[in-house]
Fold this sequence. Notes:
heterodimer, A: alpha/beta, 10 helices, globular, disordered C terminus, B: mainly alpha, two-stranded antiparallel ribbon, 27 helices, 6 strands, 2% strand
Amino acid sequence: MILTMRDVQAGYGSANVLRGVSLGVAEGETVALVGANGAGKSTLLKTISGLVRVRGGDVVFDGEPLATLSGPQRVRRGIAHVPEGRDVFGGLTVEENLRLGAYAVRRATGTHETERRLAEVLERFPVLRELLDRPAAELSGGQQQMLAIGRGLMARPRLLLLDEPSLGLSPSLVERIFAILRDLRSAGISVLIAEQNARMTLAVADRGYVLENGSIVAHGSGSELLHSPQIVERYLGIGTSTADAGAEPATDALTQRLRAILAPDNAPA
Amino acid sequence: MDAALAITIGGLVQGSVFALVAIGFALVYRVTGTVNLAQGAFVVLGALTTYSFEQTLGWPAALAALAALAVAAIIGYLVAVCIFAPGLRRLPPSGMVMLTGGLLTLFEGAALLVWGSQPYQLPPFSGYQPVAIGGAKIPTQAFWDVGITAVVVVALWYVLQRTTFGKALRACAENPSAATLMGIDVERVRVFSYTAAAVLGALSGIAIGPVVSLQFDGGRFFTVYGFISVAIGGMGSFAGALLGGLGLGVLQQLGAAYVSSIFATTLAIALLIVTLVSRPNGLFGRGARREDNRAAAAHPIGVRTRIAPRTARIAFIAAAAVVALLPVFVGGGALSSLSIAGIVFIAVMGLDVLMGFAGQISLGHAAFVAIGGYGAAIATVRYGFPPLAGIAIGLVASLACAVVLSLITVRLRGIYMALATLAFGLLVDSLAVGLSELTGGPSGLTGVPHFSVGGYTFADARSNYYLVWGIALVVFVLLANVLRSDFGRALRAIRTDQTAALALGIDVPRYKLYAFLISAACASLAGSLYAYYFQFLSPDMVSTPRSLEYVTMLVIGGEGSLAGPLLGVLLLVILPTAIQPLNQAKTLFAGVVLVGGLLLLPQGILGVITAAIARKPARAAVHSTPPGSVPT
């Protein structure tokens, strides 16, 4: 496991957002974190990159506990976080944004390596090549998202944290983002991705965790979760009211139908 | 013609120093979003430490200057690490304006203790012999000053645009949390920029030291002019800071030479207000940083816990009884300071309505105290009106100014509002000194009569005490009732979230105007009482440093509570008179209290008390409910 979280608790002020989360990401694995708005997905990613302090439990990266490390130190260890809402530096050019991605490792790698990585990232995101001198604020949402991911890759991270990369993008751009995700997976980069778009994410991921109210309520391989009735019902867009969610066998029939609609190419086991 | 050239060159010299200060402002503002009101203090620090090293210790000039820069760097670094950076983590932007205002006061107080109140002037870098170019004789210092500014500008431009560190710095300015994710140590960049700004400030002090004489409280002047430069040029824009500074320097010198210095000051401040209102991004328009109102709501300053109405009523009756009975036990000096405390309490209650309830920072509250004071004093001394009419005239004048200022600043919020009120306060300051036929100028206006009404004159200490505190209690009760109504709730809504308040149908501009009028009226009333109490009024009794003191009293007492100001006033008025050493270090004390209060006690003394009272019943309530179980 490159990342292990054990019984992690975290929150803001008096509110506890994470109430004992345990999960793991193996080397080269793409792991999905799904759950409703407010379940604690972003907070979980932030505890890994150091934007939110852990109140209890351990976060261990590559055998080293992260608790005492600052955000910048974690970046140097190889954790790159692509935050929700892109968070590009609007007043800086695209090139400056990308180069800042390698800021933390600039001494270790040297200029030569930085240039090589820049070329590599531009190869992966050709659209950015024509925009290098433009202020990042002038880019479209999709371009900014690619810039944010490219910026994250500039540090050649050992673990990439992606927070809602498809948020607010048109369906075709969402397709594009998930294509990139498949690409990263085949390149062997470990990825932990938080997404509300559970269906597409689980389809790409090796494994997935379902977060609800700050706790992990289910986990399994991507396809297992994709076909679990409970998950389909709660997270794949169509649910029933909680009142009759209990023992009604009809619900099961409904989810069967939904499953068929949502994932026609994967017959239920 | 030669005179005009000489004046213009003088303006450029002064302007280049304004520009240096402004660049320091812009640096801190871009990286942290904070208007560092303490910037001018480093100018004075640089000049005075150089003086001490050079004149007192006899070091060579260059060594003295370098040592002074090192001192500024160390002090700037310590302030950044111990005060500024923790403030950024804990306080909303408006709180940061107050914090840096507190730092300015703290520096002035410390400088007063170290260097006393006399002015100092440095010798020129390279002799007194001027260089003749064309027909004009130009002092060599002019070349030094313009040259230093040019070098700083080029160096700074190079660092920001061409180096990796510069990119990191700009990234922090754009988006601190994303910068952290890039592995940039945001805290270190903030500390660096503050320290660099401190060194720039000290450098400008060393440059201007041979041109003008400086004293302990000269920092205010440079903070204001540096700020005006950067605001005119565009907050956070280095080119704007440079052009704004040079332009302001020339304008200032020409205005002072051909019209009058009061005209020049008025012109500069009018220019600032016009820019803030019409082009908040500045003339050379790099946008100001967006102001995050949610961040402000997340870290409220002020009293958070309300106490039960019954407890409040008992406390009020007890306090009123104490106020009524005190003169039986104390007299003389103590009674006099209690009366002064009562007057100040009236003013600070007004400030609480505006700041604590409506959330609009005012750094110019003393201006209304001045208008009320001078209104009453001038009406009675120069025109023979009875004292009651004097109060009315002061009120009318204050309310008229408040309406005009409010109309001008209606669209401003947060730090812009704070700065517009600061500018207004400075304008009134300069008028109080400048209109000497009316106000008596810097030495003040004497011969103000005691307050009298219906044939009774409040001549002795005890009757004045009851007059002041009687009025204070009436104001308190009136305000308490007004603020408990829908009006008070509307103001709180505006403070929490102006946009949401608007969405609820609250007429935000109108409520802000009302809050502003109430606060101006209280201040004006206090000012009139002040003049009658002392039978005298001078500009420094009601000038901008007093505004910062009122803010200090409000913050340390507890904002948004009406009663909190009383604690703050007692602390800052009574304590220094009771403890003599504290009296000498009064300014320093006020600065320390404001800075410490904001960082350690943002809810104020009253907030701590009410939280303690509320905790007991609350604890019982928590235990009565079972520990929260996670719903499945």
